[in-house]
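Catalogue entry: protein

Sequence with per-residue tokens
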Amino acid sequence: MIWNKKEKTPEQLERERQLEIDRHINKTKNKNTDGAKTHGEILRDQITEALETYDKSTSSILLSSFTAGLEISFSFLLLCTFYFYLDGRVDQEEIFKSISLVYPLGFILVVLGQSILFTEQTALLTLPVLNKKRSFPSMMRLWGLVIAGNLLGGYFMSLVLVWLGPRLGIFEHFVVETIALHVTHGTIPVVFVSAVIAGWLMGLLSWLLASSRDTISRIVMIFLITSVLAFAGLHHSIIGSIEVFSGFLVSDQISFFDYLEFQSTALLGNAFGGAIFVALLKYRAFVFNIGN
């Protein structure tokens, strides 16, 4: 008698495929003599770190992301101070290019302080969803909490710095207006594509940081990536929110609608760049290397 072997369902095949992927990720070992991490090791560490974030309480996530919004505002403080100091001495275009020297400070404070910044976490938090360890709705919920905390922290610091700057004599409101108008001068498609590239770079930064635990190396990587954002004029949704919201507070040339239009476009672009061009491509590159 010949017994017909029962065919596996698509769900069973998918489950077996996922188990195979997890097995390859978990068995990854470093074979490099120079100590550099392999693709699989970075992916494993990124997923582990992301899962730890998913498991944090709502209060912890909100407080950490609020702190990130406060800390990244120090970049805005330096931008305004730097611009005010050079205004009238250096051509405006040269000032905006040289701002890239001070722009990274807030990012260094956030990343080394391990606060939760949306653009640095976008790709990271997408990986457990691709790896089927977390659901898409849970990722969207976490994104929402992080964005809310980042923006609230930025709003608070905008109010403080706009009030404090002129009183300390370190910058005037025209500087805030000039920076905000510079950030928002592009059309919606331009801002979106620019934000996609910025999100891509920030996602790559998270990936690169996972390959090194040396503090100096991490600072150099943060400085290089974020200074590129400033020098190229790419749009970052969190520091950009502070720049444009502050401009809205002091200038009648920037309406609240202008702020909402910019912010929604930059957020979508950053999210797309980090999730698609980093998380998905890095993850699929590893998966495609696993035999069917």
Notes: The longest helix spans residues 136-168. The mean pLDDT is 88.
